[in-house]
Amino acid sequence: MSSVVTVEIAGQKYPIRSNLDEQYVHELAAYVDQKMRAAADAAPASDLLGLAVLVALNIADECFRARQSQTSTSGELSERALRLERLVDQILSE
User: For residues 71 and 77, what is the distance between their CA atoms, to the nearest angstrom?
Assistant: First the structure.
């Protein structure tokens, strides 16, 4: 069941319709607001849209890096599992 949660980001209020938990939506909004404030401090002459694009790129970068890290970890675990399987096979065949 979707509900409307009003959040504030960069001094603007936004009604968000979502099926997500209300507290979680507020946490997401607080994270975006924190990123917007940091971007505004770094580039005070930028307009709101420019800051939003910069923040979106930064969050996309975080997402891509996390995905890449997860893929690397998953690959390492698969490789280790394969080595363990070979070791077990070798021991069982002796």
Answer: 10
| Environment class of 39 (CB within 10 Å of its CB; exposed 0-12, middle 13-18, buried 19+) | buried
3-class DSSP string for the chain: CCEEEEEEECCEEEEEEECCCHHHHHHHHHHHHHHHHHHHHHCCCCCHHHHHHHHHHHHHHHHHHHHHHHHHHHHHHHHHHHHHHHHHHHHHHC
What pTM value is reported for the model?
0.72
Query: Which residues does the chain have with pLDDT short of 50?
Result: none
